[in-house]
Design goal:
Layout lengths: L2 H4 L3 H16 L1 H11 L11 H17 L3 H20 L6
Helix pairs in contact: 4-5
Length: about 90
């Protein structure tokens, strides 16, 4: 293989090398842009049993005041037992 065989590819190789050097020099900005596109996941916050009960009671009171008896029954039948069960087991399922 002689150098004459590679001569036609030298301009393209120079452009590719220049682009690689440019990207390497801007790697911090590129990493920041990628981090902005995929932000770190936020830690899941869970409500304390007291906060869950306060929220439940506020919703139940509002439904009762608005005359939604079926919603109050559903809350009493499904949500309240789940709150009590989670409180007895040490918190909500992870």
């Amino acid at each position: 293989m002689s150098l004459d065989q590679f001569t036609p590819y030298l301009p393209a190789a120079a452009v590719v090398a220049g682009l690689l050097l440019l990207l390497w020099g801007q790697r911090d900005r590129l990493l920041a842009a990628v981090a902005w596109l995929w932000p770190a996941p936020k830690p899941e916050t869970s409500m304390s049993p007291a906060d869950r009960f306060k929220t439940f009671y506020a919703l139940r009171t509002w439904c009762q005041g608005a005359g939604h008896a079926e919603a109050v029954e559903a809350l009493d039948a499904a949500v309240l037992p789940a709150i009590i069960r989670d409180t007895n087991e040490g918190g909500p399922p992870q």
